[in-house]
Amino acid sequence: MEPDLRTATVVETQSPVSWAAIVGGGFVAAALTLVLVAFGSGLGLSSISPWSGSGVSASTFQIGTGIYLVIVGVMSSAVGGYVAGRLRTKWVGIHSNEVFFRDTAHGLLAWALATLISATALASTTAYLANGALAGSAGRSSQSQTLSQLSPSEIFVDKLFRPAPGQSPSEAANGNFRAEVLRLWSADFYKNADLSPADRAYVAQVVAARTGLTQADAEKRVDAVVAEAKSAADTMRRNAAHLSFWLTAALLFGAFAASLAAAEGGALRDGTWNGRVLTPRAL
């Protein structure tokens, strides 16, 4: 007689995903993220100052902001993941390894949902705070609209046409020449992040004619303003890159924290109460 090698097959009728727990954990993580970001914004605004020698330096502020973003990501994701793991339904007849995987997956899904919610909410909140900061406490709506529409290129063109000492600013402020130079500046910097040699020579001639500077001094001014614009663009690029790296670290650490916390919450969900002591499920 040959042995019967057939094994019993257990059909799982319960869904392996508890969407209600995931949505709940995601909303908890997103709400906590907004609270911590608002608190961090208050700390950041209170630590900086427009006066020289007061407040923290720019580099210290950037590093502190990055570290705080990582802390926010870990704390909010861990709480959301724990809630998702603790609130999910109990799976009966499932191996403990599979339960552990599902718990971590629930935490990861809750983190993903919270990330999408936070990205949408923070984008609108940041825009609102920026508009409010520009408007000021006196409600200067026209001034805030002007500042929000101001292009950085216009500032550098203004520096080009600043009149020489002793010269009247009326001639240098002619709108036709400024508009032409602004178009050249914007087009060249958009393509090559610099003025082309022909445009640089022409701009120097226009600056010399409109400001009373000599040709040599006008060329020096153009070179100085172009160097300042390139330095400002490079600083913005490096700051954006650093912020992207910190955000990436915050998201990755947050995903790990949410998965780990969900596994802990699931172990406690399936644990047993001994009086007032909760014994977690063996992982």
Instruction: List the uncertain runs.
Output: 132-148
- Biggest β-sheet description: 2 strands, antiparallel
- List the strand order in the largest sheet: 1-2
Distance between the termini: 41 Å
Radius of gyration over C-alpha positions, nearest whole angstrom: 30 Å
Strand content: under 5%
Keywords summarizing the entry:
single chain, 283 residues, mainly alpha, 2 domains, two-stranded antiparallel sheet, 73% helix, 2% strand, elongated
Walk me through this protein's architecture.
By secondary structure, the chain is mainly α. The protein has helices at residues 19-47, 58-87, 96-135, 141-148, 152-160, 169-172, 175-192, 197-211, 215-269, and strands spanning 272-274, 277-279. The chain has a two-stranded antiparallel sheet. Strand 1 (272-274) and strand 2 (277-279) form a beta hairpin.
Annotate the secondary structure layout.
Elements lengths: L18 H29 L10 H30 L8 H40 L5 H8 L3 H9 L8 H4 L2 H18 L4 H15 L3 H55 L2 E3 L2 E3 L4
Antiparallel strand pairs: 1-2
